[in-house]
Amino acid sequence: SSRVVEIQSQMSERAVELLGLPEDRPCLLLDVGCGSGLSGDYISDEGHYWIGMDISPAMLDVAVEREVEGDLLLADVGHGIPFRPGMFDGCISISAVQWLCNADKKSHNPPKRLYRFFSTLYTALARGSRAVLQLYPENSEQLELITAQAMRAGFTGGMVVDYPNSAKAKKFFLCLFVGASGTLPKGLGTESADGEEIHQAKFTNERTRFRNAKGKSVKKSRDWILEKKERRRRQGKEVRADTKYTGRKRRPRF
């Protein structure tokens, strides 16, 4: 419907804006989950080139019928991004990446598929470029799973949330940096009534808490155990709940 097309176009526009592309030259962008090529039309209008990947032959047929300017590739991004290193000046994705959290087949392992996607995307992007992925997360666990795998693959950056106070207009953009970490752009509508800014989620590859001289948590300490459990939870593994006994020394047996 025209409303969907309009929202899709707005999100494409915002995603490209968040890429912060150089204005003096045309860039080559990757569009992940390009569908019928609506985002691609916007990229072309802006004078850039693009390659679109999608898992749906029907959607790509529509893109071909619409005579979009980009090149199209039928592929499952959960198998990785099959392009040469440093080929793209940026990547956008509209409403697609959350699908990697679903295990549609017995063989599907969401953390593995996400990691494969992010690690190969990282390689395919030029140093200093960005990926901006608009997504509809089902819950905070999904967001955590997606961001954890992006970090593991080497990205820095964070979540830019537009209109966080509006149920309807709220939009999540995972804004990822390759190499040199930029400053995270501000979300739209993040000034609250009294002019206070709402803080955005930001992450780097740093880990804090109790460290020994080498900067690692003391092995087998309660903190070390909690960090390890937290890491395994982020990878989607079954982990026992934390209790007051976690990491407590056992008494010697008589």
From TrEMBL:
Main subcellular location: cytoplasm
GO molecular function (one): rRNA (guanine) methyltransferase activity
Span of domain 18S rRNA (guanine(1575)-N(7))-methyltransferase Bud23 C-terminal: 176-251
Catalytic activity line of the entry: a guanosine in 18S rRNA + S-adenosyl-L-methionine = an N(7)-methylguanosine in 18S rRNA + S-adenosyl-L-homocysteine
GO cellular component: cytoplasm; nucleolus
Compositionally biased intervals (Basic and acidic residues): 236-245
Pfam family, one: Methyltransf_11
CDD domains registered for this protein in UniProt: AdoMet_MTases (cd02440)
Region (Disordered): 221-254
Secreted among keywords: no
Keywords, comma-separated and alphabetical: Cytoplasm, Methyltransferase, Nucleus, S-adenosyl-L-methionine, Transferase
Subunit structure: Heterodimer with TRMT112; this heterodimerization is necessary for the metabolic stability and activity of the catalytic subunit BUD23. Interacts with GRIP1.
Family: Belongs to the class I-like SAM-binding methyltransferase superfamily. BUD23/WBSCR22 family.
Function: S-adenosyl-L-methionine-dependent methyltransferase that specifically methylates the N(7) position of a guanine in 18S rRNA. Requires the methyltransferase adapter protein TRM112 for full rRNA methyltransferase activity. Involved in the pre-rRNA processing steps leading to small-subunit rRNA production independently of its RNA-modifying catalytic activity. Important for biogenesis end export of the 40S ribosomal subunit independent on its methyltransferase activity. Locus-specific steroid receptor coactivator.
Name of the protein in its database record: 18S rRNA (guanine-N(7))-methyltransferase
Name of encoding gene: Bud23
